[in-house]
Amino acid sequence: MTHPATHLPTAVPPSRWLHKENLAAVLSWLVFAYIQQSGAMHIYGSWHPLSLLCAASLLLFVGLFFYCQSCEEQSTPTVALVLMWAAMTITAVLVPNGFAAGLGVLWVCLLPWFVPARWLYLMIVPALLPVLIVEALDGLRLDEGLMILVCGTFQFFAMYAMSKAREEKLAREALAKTHQALLAAQSQLATQAADAERLRIARDLHDSLGHHLTALVIQLQVAGYQCAQAQTTTASTLPGQIAHCHDLAKQLLQEIRHTVSQLREPALPQLALQLKTLAQNMPQLQLDLQIPPGLPADPLSTALLFRVSQEAMTNSVRHSGATQAQLQVWAHQHSLFFRYRDNGRLAHWPIDEGNGLTGMRERIEQAGGQLLLSNEQQHLQIDIELPLEAA
After folding, report:
1. How far apart are CA 115 and CA 108, in angstroms?
2. 48 φ, ψ to 5°?
3. How many Cβ atoms from other residues are within 10 Å of residue 219's Cβ?
4. Rounded to an integer, what distance in angstroms lies between the CA atom of residue 213 and that of residue 22?
């Protein structure tokens, strides 16, 4: 485990840009771009600098569209959105009778993910403003005004639809987190119930059998003493039998005490069972667990490795598009080793680190361990080494 340390991605990989939910946007851009570029070539000529400027603006627009889709909601791409609006304005100025307002529909589709709800629908004004100004300078006719109104209606509908899509996505994520927390609470309650049942059994064994066996040992001691003092002819064989019974009773009492002590110890958390429960929430990721029974042996290592596994599985599903993952845990000498790898594709290397992995790295280092990332054939691999003394 000598691979260089680096970080997990926080952006959506380019492989998601052409998913089915984006095909309509791509086809719409092709139609609008064809109308604008045809108009520019008709007005200025095929290789005129203004025609090339129009083409460059259209390409910049769609490139920034994909870039904004790859951004997380926590990092608003303000500059990219402004540049998209500027590119749309340039095409509207260069081709006054084109369909630049159609590009505004694509622009407003991105806004619900980054603009607060109280300002969202007001963004229709800047989306229509370039076309409205250009048309007004040339003398706004009734049919042109109706077309702008129709485009505004489409933009409103696009904003509303994407707002609902965002709300549904957030609701699904919240439901998944709640379901995961519920499963964790259910597992914890089951463990507590099992601990309570073991404690009850331990008390019953101690209070019933333990006391009776203790009394039996005392009575056998008394009987052995009395037989040793007897002067009958048959008494010479009784002490040996009573001593044997005494030894058996003492052994049985010792075994019951040992069993009671084991039952009183609470069950340690099992990493394999926790990860199987976690994997049930991610049916799109097939998890192959290779964890020997009894590892990790301490709650601290179990909690740390569970959090790292949770973060790694989440990133595999959200960012790398992985469908399979392998998780291994083993012990060697005085260290506990953990390895996670998936079959997803890394968009670039090295990759940026998110807040989740940063926190996990800090916790592992505080426990005296280390976390290393590596790029194995464009597949992410996470290696962790923890000292067994951390228990």
Report:
1. 10
2. -70, 145
3. 14
4. 77
**SS3 per-residue string spanning the chain:** CCCCCCCCCCCCCHHHCCCHHHHHHHHHHHHHHHHHHHHHHHHHCCCCHHHHHHHHHHHHHHHHHHHHHCCCCCCCCHHHHHHHHHHHHHHHHHCCCCCHHHHHHHHHHHHHHCCCHHHHHHHHHHHHHHHHHHHHHCCCCHHHHHHHHHHHHHHHHHHHHHHHHHHHHHHHHHHHHHHHHHHHHHHHHHHHHHHHHHHHHHHHHHHHHHHHHHHHHHHHHHHHHHHHHCCCCHHHCHHHHHHHHHHHHHHHHHHHHHHHHHHHCCCCCCHHHHHHHHHCCCCCCEEEEECCCCCCCCHHHHHHHHHHHHHHHHHHHHCCCCCEEEEEEEEECCEEEEEEEECCCCCCCCCCCCHHHHHHHHHHHHCCCEEEEEEECCEEEEEEEEEHHHC
Strand 286-290 and strand 324-332: pairing?
Answer: parallel
Tokens of 363: 């916790």
Segment-wise mean pLDDT, segments of 10 residues, the chain, 391 residues: 37 45 79 89 90 92 85 75 90 84 85 83 84 77 77 84 83 79 73 72 67 70 71 55 70 70 59 81 85 79 84 81 88 89 79 73 86 82 82 41
What is the torsional sign of CA 174, 176, 179, 183?
A: negative
What is the per-residue pLDDT for 1? 39
Question: Which residue in the block uniquely carries the two structure tokens 């019933």?
Answer: 208
> Which fold, 271-390?
Heat Shock Protein 90 (3.30.565)
**Burial classification of residue 121, based on how many CB atoms lie within 10 Å of its CB (0-12 exposed, 13-18 middle, 19 or more buried):** middle
Q: How many Cα neighbours within 13 Å face the side chain of 294?
A: 2
Domain chopping of the chain, boundaries: 14-140, 199-264, 271-390
Torsions phi, psi of 72, nearest 5? -75, 160
